[in-house]
Amino acid sequence: MNEFEPEPVCIAAFHRIAKQPAGELSYSPAHFRKLCAFWREFYVVLPLAECFGQPDAPGRPRLAITFDDGYADNAEIAAPILAELGLPATFFLPTAWIGSGRSFPWDAACSPAPPVMDWTQAQGLVCAGFGVGSHTCTHVRLASCRSEQRRRELLESKRELEDRLGIEVLDFAYPFGGREDCSEEDRVAVAEAGYRCCLSCFGGLADARDPMHARRIAVSPRWHASPRAWRRHWQQALNEWRRKRSGLDVIVPSHGAQIGANLGEGKAGGLG
Ligand SMILES: [Zn+2]
User: Fold this and answer.
1) Are strands 171-173 and 44-45 parallel, antiparallel or unpaired?
2) What is the pLDDT of residues 30-66, one digit of tens each?
3) How many domains does the chain have?
4) What pTM was computed for the model?
């Protein structure tokens, strides 16, 4: 067994927190608050940067909170709830959309279409201590790009975020987030552009030793309507991780059992 054999990290990916949720990736403020409060109690919620290459925290599983696409509700609704609960998060912004006044094509059927945040709101996230990462410039499917366009999307989004927000941008989440949306060649380009991690969004837990293949779980009201539903889903992901690891003959501590034990029936009922 290696000296450094950490438990996996859970990286949660949100899109919208909306008072009138619409669609699978839109979560209500009340549900968001409840889930975050649950995580605060039963997980170690870390800034994204601290998830990779760090020794395991004893006793509780590690979790990071992320947001994709830069919807205005991230700044207006999610960030204040996170700040109130004292939880870190990273927001992945597609720079060409920020402050553009345009809404995303996939929201065309919504009336009114949910707005994208402006640069003042992005700056507010930084001032409040949240992380900001790149989600390309145009929200392009990276695997569909020719090399020069890919390079531009990776470098220009990083540079614009750094120039406008006065921070170093090292985290990258690729748009659409499927297995096929980012090739190994793309990942090399992501690393060459100066990013330290590359986040997908097709489920599963992240290996803290492999930040360029970091998996995320997209949080959805369909699958995670309550903390109890979240816990079930997370336990499945952990079981999957352990099944894969068992082939390597690695013994891992039982975080899932511990959370289950901590959540007595009465307590879980209150959270659900
Ligand atoms: Zn996206």
Assistant:
1) unpaired
2) 999 999 999 999 999 999 999 987 666 667 899 999 9
3) 1
4) 0.89
